[in-house]
Amino acid sequence: MYNQIAANKRKTWVLIIAMTAVILGLSWLFGVVNNVDPASTVIIGTMFSTVYALISYYASASIALASSGARQIQKSDAPELWNLVENLCIANGQPMPKVYIINDASPNAFATGRDPEHAAIAFTTGLVQILDRKELEGVAAHELSHIKNYDIRVMTIVVVLVGAVMLIADMLLRGGHIFGGRDNKNAGGAAVVLLIVGLVLAILSPLLAQLIQLAVSRSREYLADASAALLTRYPAGLASALQKISATQQPLARANHATAHLFISSPFGTTKKRGFWRELFSTHPPAEDRIARLMNMGG
Questions:
Q1: Is 288 annotated in the active site?
Q2: 221 is in an annotated binding site
Q3: Active-site residue, from 137, 143, 279, 288
Q4: Peptidase M48 domain: from which residue to which, for each copy (predicted)?
Q5: Does the annotation flag 146 for ligand binding?
Q6: Where are the domains of the chain?
Q7: At what angle do helices 38-68 and 151-174 cross, to 10 degrees?
Q8: Which of 42, 85, 181, 196 is least buried, going by the fewest C-beta atoms within 10 A?
């Protein structure tokens, strides 16, 4: 189990480094094809990405909670749920997050926040109604693990990097020089090859960046599942919860693609159909695979 957690962490950072390399490469290419000092464009691209990341870092939690229609509760509103979350926090050595309820029959939950000291965890009313205590404990442990593992911070970085890649790629495609501007009409064969490569990268890099984002999201789900199993010492609880959640194909009323990766299961509802392309473009691993891994952890 510990090896799986370590492997997922390594995979996540390898993907982030790869996406950062794509951004730097596109920034350099933008400078080359537009006759601007490439070093300057790389610096500007890095500065823009940093500012964008800081804004997203501090605003993402409020946006996610507001867009889902979550309502903050106190202990008196749902004492059993509150105590369950509080006990897990004590066991895991982390601060108590703010607790929210989403009035929606679709069973789901998510965590958000830039760090354990500024975190929130939200449950739908549908989830609380259909799960027993052990199952709900597994889901809560999964979401608290996202907070403890700084997954929200990681995914914010990834989303920002994807946005930067798409913006720079769009600038490349819109730049007249990439299609052979006045300065490039008499360029040699090497310059023509460079322009063709630049055009291909500008078209494909946004897709590659999105695929990396989805891969990171799936990796962090496996990591949170494993961490939750360690925290509760009862993998079957989360496995049973995932079984019930996946059996419900009802989508969340206020589901949106911007926050889909935050939820324990896709807020657009589950599907029994599987296939390479469907899984490649999914924010979450197949429920059957997650359940099988959890059951294997339980021996």
A1: no
A2: yes
A3: 143
A4: 78-295
A5: yes
A6: 2-67+154-297
A7: 130
A8: 196
